[in-house]
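Hey,
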Amino acid sequence: MRSPEPPSSPWQLLYGGAHRLRRRWYRTRARRLPRPVVSVGNLCWGGAGKTPVTAAVAAHLRDRGLAVCILSRGYAGRGRGVRVVSLGEGPLLGPLLAGDEPVLLAGELPGVAVVVGPDRWQAGQQALRRLPEPPDLFLLDDGFSHLALHRDLDLVVFPAADPFAGGRLLPSGRLREPLAAVARAHAVLLTGAAPEALDTAGAALAAALRPHGFAGPGFASRTVPGRPRPVGGGGDLGDLATGARVFLVSAVARPAGFTALVRDLGFAIAGELRFPDHHAYPPASLARLEAACRDSGAAAVLTTAKDGVKLLGRLAVPLVELPIRAEPEPAFWAWLDEAVDRLAGRG
């Protein structure tokens, strides 16, 4: 694995310089919360696998006995200000107000609070005042570029399918920040790694990032699909048997990965619709989807869990979602436990 050389075009240099000035501005201005803050973020635009990693980290810390609160921006949600999405007993708000990923996390993580707001420091302060059980630790979802909040631990994820996003910033590339920004990360995680490469891929990623100033450890994580489960209009469909004809719909950054996963599981794909990431599925989209599913002769619409929270109860055809989870290598959990214990003063 080899990372690309830093781009040298005038625009890339200008954009990279603007990012350096922004980081310098926040270096002494980032506000701190009175609890440790662990961030899961990424450098590329979309599709890095950070939400399953966030869920896995939250569940692990919860199972260790910590009261965890996820802080999220609530991207694409139309609500204003700070919103409590979950007290740990499932979603209190829908995706229209809270955003699709916070609602997904709230549904998948009993015992974990979820709070959203554009200012994560304010969201954390509200969580400390409003949650029945004050959190021991904040988990910042998609937080690497949110420099206004101080992080005690920064984990940056890179997708195995395209770890360096071409090595270029917008508009000619898909990097949010220059690769040199990874120098402020404490660890990196390669998501969607092949099972046979799990023991070596993380170290290879870390080595590839050394020329960009990264000094921490690297780990790898595989993506594991769960059993397809009926939601909303699924009715009495029951378990969807392998080989069944399904119609795929997704509004994610990397729809090809979802399609490949469904095909690898042995389902027959009767048709597919792909919408832009975070698509809200207005009535016209729902009508188009229902008609296409019926015309295809599929047994059900099969979608991602992220899309399932937005389609719940809104379709007149059977709806099934495919949950996925991240499974980092064991060495990652040992590193995380040691780091969190050190933050808590137990190490």
